[in-house]
Design goal:
Elements: H1 14-23, E1 27-28, H2 39-48, H3 60-68, H4 78-87, H5 94-110, H6 113-123, E2 125-127, E3 130-131, H7 132-141, H8 150-159
Parallel strand pairs: 1-3
Antiparallel strand pairs: 2-3
Helix pairs in contact: 2-8, 4-5, 4-6
């Protein structure tokens, strides 16, 4: 089933179901990576996982820092987030992290990197009841994922760590 994700579009995730139950609505439009502005995967990788193209699913130094309690940010890679978002549940537990590690290894062994980023950009929560960059582009900028500018892509990427608390249009003078 996990290896089939290389080709199959995930119809829905547990997080989407939870948001649909809580909000009564859900915004998500799947688009292929070819139909997403090249600025968006660049921004997501820069914001979330700078080593994405080089690692095999895990950033060992970030994991070590997290375990030692000195990390400034989370240690999850984009591959790990895909594993969690598509196949598992939100929340923090050693059980979920263990399952996430196993699923991540299967994803990294069977999916090409472009598929991993494509799935990530389509299932990532981008606001309350909003999932994926197409829905985010429409909601926040009244445009499509294919037409996102570098600034808009960066603004969406900036909310990914906390999409329910952040607004990509609420920029600061340092944007």
């Amino acid at each position: 089933v996990i290896a089939a994700g290389r080709w199959a579009v995930p119809p829905v995730t547990l997080t989407m179901v939870e948001q649909w139950r809580a909000q009564g609505a859900l915004a998500r439009d799947w688009v292929s990576l070819d139909d997403i502005s090249a600025e968006m995967p660049r921004a997501a990788v820069a914001a979330e996982d700078a080593g994405f193209c080089a690692h095999q699913g895990f950033e060992w130094e970030a994991i070590r820092a997290q375990l030692e309690g000195g990390a400034q940010r989370g240690a999850s890679t984009i591959s790990q987030q895909v594993a969690k978002n598509v196949y598992l549940w939100q929340g923090r537990s050693w059980l979920r992290k263990g399952l996430e590690a196993g699923v991540t290894m299967i994803i990294e062994a069977t999916w090409p990197k472009h598929r991993i980023i494509e799935v990530y950009l389509n299932v990532a929560e981008t606001g309350i009841g909003t999932f994926g960059v197409e829905a985010a582009a429409q909601r926040y900028f009244d445009t499509t994922a294919s037409a996102l500018t570098a600034t808009q892509a960066a603004q969406i990427a900036a909310i990914l760590p906390a999409p329910r608390q952040r607004d990509p249009k609420a920029t600061t003078p340092f944007h």
